[in-house]
Specification:
Elements (H helix, E strand, L loop, with lengths): L5 H23 L7 H15 L4 H17 L4 H15 L6 H16 L4 H15 L2 H8 L2 E6 L2 E6 L6
Helix pairs in contact: 1-2, 1-4, 1-5, 2-3, 2-4, 3-4, 4-5, 5-6
Length: about 160
């Protein structure tokens, strides 16, 4: 697993929270009373701002967002948006979770508008890439692969060496 400097991890967490927050309305529109994904993003931002790491809080926020995703399984866009939030906050513990936040955000965008997924996912991928510092951009975005297969957009995360 690649080691990141603390400053890189903070930048990645900020970016992951931004990615998750962009798709959060896809969850909140369907589940307006469920604040678990939003709370996860807020916990991530609190860690970035304060540097205070409490594993029970980070883990609880991440697990809460993922539980919200399971509860939203009948709505793929909402489910993926909640997963993005869970991955974002987990970046405080393991930097590579930032990849998952971006990955799930792209899956949420694709699920929200399947007929236009190729265009909307490409635009979101470009937005994500543009928000990363140059020193992290190539490594991170090269692992988030978007492909068209059988008339639909498929997003996958390429793990492998150094991940």
């Amino acid at each position: 697993m690649k080691k990141y400097r603390k400053q890189d991890q903070i930048l990645m967490a900020t970016w992951a929270a931004d990615c998750a927050e962009r798709v959060l309305p896809l969850f909140e529109k369907v589940y307006p009373e469920d604040d678990r994904p939003r709370s996860a993003i807020e916990a991530c931002r609190t860690w970035v701002q304060t540097g205070v790491f409490r594993m029970a809080e980070i883990r609880g926020a991440s697990l809460g967002a993922h539980a919200a995703a399971r509860d939203a399984k009948e709505n793929d866009a909402a489910c993926f948006a909640a997963r993005a939030a869970g991955q974002a906050v987990a970046t405080a513990h393991v930097p590579q979770h930032a990849y998952g936040a971006a990955y799930y955000a792209l899956k949420a965008v694709a699920a929200a508008d399947p007929a236009n997924a190729e265009v909307t996912v490409a635009a979101e991928w470009d937005w994500q890439a543009g928000r990363l510092p140059e020193g992290l951009r190539e490594e991170i975005m090269s692992r988030i692969v978007v492909q068209e297969r059988g008339g639909r957009v498929v997003v996958r995360l390429r793990k492998g060496e150094g991940f």
